[in-house]
Amino acid sequence: MSTPIETDVVIVGAGPVGLFAVFELGLYDLKCHLIDILDRPGGQCAELYPEKPIYDIPAWPEISGQALVDRLMEQIAPFSPEFHFNRMVSGFRKLDNGRFEVETDEGELLHCHAVVIAAGGGSFQPKRPPVPGIEAYEGKSVFYSVRRMEEFRDKDLLIVGGGDSALDWTLNLQPVAKSVTLVHRRPDFRAAPDSVNKMFAMKEEGKIDFQVGQVTGLKGEDGQLTAATLKSPDGEIEVACNRMLPFFGLTMKLGPIADWGLNQHENLISVDTEKFETSIPGVFAIGDINWYPGKLKLILSGFHEAALMTQAVKRLAHPDQKLVFQYTTSSTSLQKKLGVQ
Ligand code: FAD
């Protein structure tokens, strides 16, 4: 078990709402650690619609999902948030000193005054491809994410899918792996055109192989893959491989947070509308994960919720300090924190 990290607030989820919470909490000198199961910030905006325009962010007539995330990261930079990516929040308990302990699935412990759940629709879980017997290989030679590229060094890698993840990892793992074969059911891709062009250029240079087809079977023993069978336009073919990375998209599940004993409403966490606190004092829920009468699952609603939650967390963390409401336009102390003074 690792030595606990001491901080003011642990935010579960680095989607747009979790990111903006860092800003609001930062204005009140509250230091944040964010935990996200994904490998980058931005939640749904970055994962599901990075290039789609959003038209209802105040003062941004049009901004893409990824651009919004980039702006939020820029806005919170003065508060130096610490990110723990590729981690799912699993356990949580109240300590004798009144603080909370949050645990990740990698065994890290974080101690904090308040927990802010900004987990959106829940954790994104990889969709399993319909390949018979794939369960036996999962976590041993079939993986749905890349936590450490080194784990794929000198491996014969089969990457399956046609989206950004499949293409990005084909390009990034090619220099590390012994061989890379990309498989997609057709020669058209949903991924960024630049990545697709680079992938075809690598194929031309003989650095990777690309096969049109669908994986229909796996061969191996004790969870260790030796080959995959593909149904291709030329009939059934076999590709030798000892690691497979299927990227078939993500579904959303509440995951372990569902077992924390929080009051729920149709799989969402019930909160009050004064502080956005859950049924456990000191645990807050903001953004798409929460429910209250009239809730709208909009980014701007989550931003508002982050501002009100912050007032309550400040009182909780520093009950002895007077809470002074200030505008960023006129407060020199806030401007110093933002590094603009
Ligand atoms: P999310 O963006 O879902 O982020 C939650 C994060 O928490 C994720 O990164 C997830 O990995 C992480 N997480 C969850 N559980 C755990 C766990 N146990 N441990 C660790 N991490 C965890 N809204 C608008 O306002 N305007 C629009 O035009 C608009 N268009 C949209 C278009 C599409 C196609 C979609 C899908 C949504 C759209 N939305 C729009 C909705 C908007 O994206 C959401 O309201 C917003 O993303 C919610 O932000 P969030 O931070 O609450 O949650």
UniProtKB/TrEMBL annotation:
FAD/NAD(P)-binding domain segment(s): 8-293
Lineage: superkingdom: Bacteria
Substrates-to-products reaction catalysed: 2 reduced [2Fe-2S]-[ferredoxin] + NADP(+) + H(+) = 2 oxidized [2Fe-2S]-[ferredoxin] + NADPH
Enzyme class: oxidoreductase
Binding positions for FAD per the UniProt entry: 36, 44, 49, 89, 124, 288, 329
Matching SUPFAM superfamilies: FAD/NAD(P)-binding domain
Complex formation: Homodimer.
Family assignment from sequence similarity: Belongs to the ferredoxin--NADP reductase type 2 family.
Designated name of the protein: Ferredoxin--NADP reductase
